[in-house]
Write a structure and sequence with these properties.
single chain, mainly alpha, 10 helices, 82% helix, disordered N terminus, membrane, transmembrane helix, Secreted protein
Length: 485
């Protein structure tokens, strides 16, 4: 009857069409029915394979992104350390110790000037003593700053302590010489022999002990700066290359994930993954650019700022000691030849021209020579440099006139020339050096500041980029995985 279920025959294969009982199966038909395949069912292994591949591609993408941000973090940290050492730690320490050298040399020069002036230049003598006291305070402050910046470097701290101890002995000797000189009431020119003897002890201590130790402090700190610059020049480009390589790997993983999802789920594009790729490109370009700029700023700060500042600082200190030799030349007749020779040595250290004696050097400077070597040989390009050369030439011309007066036995006039035109010429020359140093100092601070600002922006954006990429990758993958739950 239609609509009535037919009883299943014994041995009938489940799912096989029912056969009326009045037509039993033959043995052959029964065997064929048992061998027939059952209807297709969804494969559990096929259903679990797609999520596994999606998760594998997602894991590779996340790993590549993690490596990208690790390279960015290490690169930014390395570049930041270089900028900090050169711009905030060892670099300022070098400048401070170079300033210490200048302060110490000017202390000795002011004492020599004060002893030379006598009662005829009472006002100027008091000014020289006041400047000596000012330089002493500046030297002590520079030593304290150098001590603070030395950190845990015991050798450097011992050197600073040695300079402090020696400075105390120098101040005692110089103070005794100034006190006896004031009591003697001598005319302008050499003071009594007892005063000269005390000053000899003081200036020997300064020139043979304190100034070399101060210069050693500068060399030690300068070595740290050079080593830091060299390390960063080798490390930062490698880390920048690592950022680019890991960024390309992350983009490749994102592309593979995008293609797989598009083919398997018949979707052209996953907007979240496309946005993740855009953020990754921005991170690679921005991060690599920031590291490159930081390295360039570090190089600029050292080559166009720090190195010239240090060179000009040394030139100022040596020049100041050089003009102090002019007073010592008049002050101590027994050592006059020695001080004339040291004046020539220091002149050639700052602006080198081949000459066998001071007269030959004066002649070459007066001829308008421009092929200088020495400390300032590479620093005299440009308008500021030419002003330095012109002022230096004027100072050497004043020294020529001054020594001619001494050779003619006109000592009172020589003292007046030393304290008048010669000193004025030196002060004008020193001002040009100071202006040149300030220009390079400004370039140094601009470069260091630019590099630090760029890295600061990178550090601020990194957490947002990491969190944003994590959310975008999850938003692109999670909806597809939900379809298999």
């Amino acid at each position: 009857m239609t609509g009535q279920l037919t009883a299943q025959a014994p041995g009938q294969v489940p799912g096989q069409a029912a056969v009326p009982a009045s037509h039993p199966l033959t043995p052959a038909q029964l065997a064929d029915a048992r061998l027939a395949p059952s209807p297709a069912r969804p494969s559990r292994s096929g259903r679990s394979g797609v999520p596994g591949r999606v998760l594998a591609l997602t894991g590779a993408t996340v790993t590549a992104l993690a490596l990208l941000f690790a390279a960015l973090a290490v690169g930014a940290g390395s570049a930041g350390d270089g900028l900090r050492v050169i711009g905030r730690d060892a670099g300022p320490q070098v400048v401070a110790t170079a300033g210490l050298y200048f302060g110490l040399s000017d202390m000795d020069a002011q004492v020599a000037d004060a002893l030379l002036m006598g009662e005829e230049y009472a006002e100027r003598r008091r000014a020289a003593v006041a400047r000596y006291e000012q330089r002493r305070s500046e030297a002590n402050a520079a030593l304290l700053k150098a001590f603070e910046l030395s950190g845990d470097d015991r050798a450097e701290r011992r050197t600073i302590q040695s300079v402090l101890d020696g400075l105390g002995r120098y101040e005692q000797l110089a103070g005794q010489a100034l006190l006896l000189d004031a009591r003697s009431g001598h005319a302008a020119g050499p003071p009594p022999a007892e005063v000269v003897g005390l000053y000899r002890q003081a200036t020997d201590l300064m020139r043979r002990v304190l100034l070399p130790q101060a210069y050693n402090l500068t060399l030690e700190s300068g070595t740290i700066v050079r080593a830091t610059h060299d390390d960063n020049s080798a490390t930062v480009p490698l880390l920048r290359a690592a950022v680019i390589v890991t960024g390309l790997a992350a983009l490749a993983c994102l592309a593979l994930l995008q293609l797989y999802l598009a083919r398997r789920f018949r979707r052209l594009v996953a907007p979240a993954l496309l946005a993740a790729a855009a953020v990754t490109v921005a991170a690679v370009v921005g991060g690599a650019g920031a590291l490159g700029r930081a390295q360039a700023d570090l190089h600029t700060g050292k080559r166009e700022g720090f190195d010239p500042v240090l060179t000009v600082a040394r030139a100022r200190a040596i020049s100041n000691s050089m003009q102090g030799d002019q007073s010592r030349y008049l002050l101590d007749k027994e050592r006059a030849d020695t001080y004339e020779h040291t004046f020539l040595d220091k002149s050639q250290t700052v602006f080198y021209l081949p000459a066998g004696n001071l007269g030959g050097y004066h002649a070459k400077v007066a001829e308008g020579a421009t092929d200088f070597l020495g400390l300032m040989g590479v620093q005299v390009a440009g308008a500021d440099g030419q002003r330095v050369v012109a002022a230096y030439r004027t100072f050497q011309e004043a020294d020529t006139t001054f020594r001619a007066l001494v050779r003619d036995g006109r000592h009172r006039e020589a003292v007046a020339a030393r304290l008048g035109p010669v000193r004025e010429a030196f002060d004008a020359y020193d001002r040009t050096l100071l202006a040149l140093s300030q220009r390079h100092q400004a370039a140094f601070e601009r470069a260091i500041g630019s590099g630090e600002r760029g890295l600061d922006i990178l550090w601020r954006l990194l957490p947002f980029a990491i969190g944003g990429l994590g959310l975008l990758v999850a938003a692109g993958v999670w909806p597809r995985l939900k379809e298999y739950r």
